[in-house]
Amino acid sequence: MLGQAGVPNYAIIDTGRNRVIGVREDWTEWCNVDGVGFGKLPTSESTGLELADAFIWAKGGGISSGTSDPSSLYYNSFCGKATTFKPSPEEGEWRQAYFEMLLKNTNPIIN
């Protein structure tokens, strides 16, 4: 549809937290998903996919997408779902345990 409208129909894909498949119940679960890992390394050289211009890691691995604390002023119910890594701090704050989980579940393995 994009191509027909004259818009380049290529994509930039965020692979920063997409390594493990099947840990989400559905794709509305985006907040600090438990059990995921770093995916393909960022590149714009050769993605191996005709329509993918680049792979990126849009957010640093240990940076929280939002708090799992429902009493917080900035709580978002998506961050309280069953598949959320808990406890999670406020959005933008570092969570070392989450970063370590991402490393553990990384593929390809980063040395």
Please explain how this structure is put together.
The protein is mostly loops and 111 residues long. It has one helix at residues 96-104; strands at 11-14, 52-56. It has one domain (1-105). It has a two-stranded parallel ribbon.
Fold blueprint:
Blueprint: E1 11-14, E2 52-56, H1 96-104
Parallel strand pairs: 1-2
Keywords:
1 helix, globular, 111 residues, little secondary structure
Short description:
This protein is mostly loops.
- As for the number of domains, it is 1
The SS-based structural class is little secondary structure
Please bin the fraction of helical residues. under 10%
As residue ranges, the low-confidence spans are none
